[in-house]
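Table S2 (text version). Query chain:
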Amino acid sequence: MGRGTDLAILGSAAGLAALTFAATRPMSAENCNIEEGDTVAIWGAGLVGQFAIKSALMLGAEQVVSIDHYEDRLELARQQSNKVKTINFDEEEVYDRLLDLTGWTRAGLVH
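Corresponding structure-token output:
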């Protein structure tokens, strides 16, 4: 992208929204004190949830569990890393599946 394209994106509402998400999601993940080896559960796999997943992975989460009911969003989450597991809440009981995925330990919540 050239400079003109960059400025057009920054001047658009979508560009502003993307910048807002890009700035706030990593901060939210940092505020949760994610440390290497943690398991993080994220409710919602839309745009904001995808940023939260990436942020948790960048901060060293060992496992990220993405919870949603839109299969296309869950597929995008799985494509980010083999460390990402998904729960479709229309098909599974979230609490029981979280316990199963985490070995009956507590997961931190980012979103």
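Notes on Table S2: The chain is about 50% helix and 15% strand. Residues 26-109 form a domain with the Rossmann fold fold (CATH 3.40.50.720).
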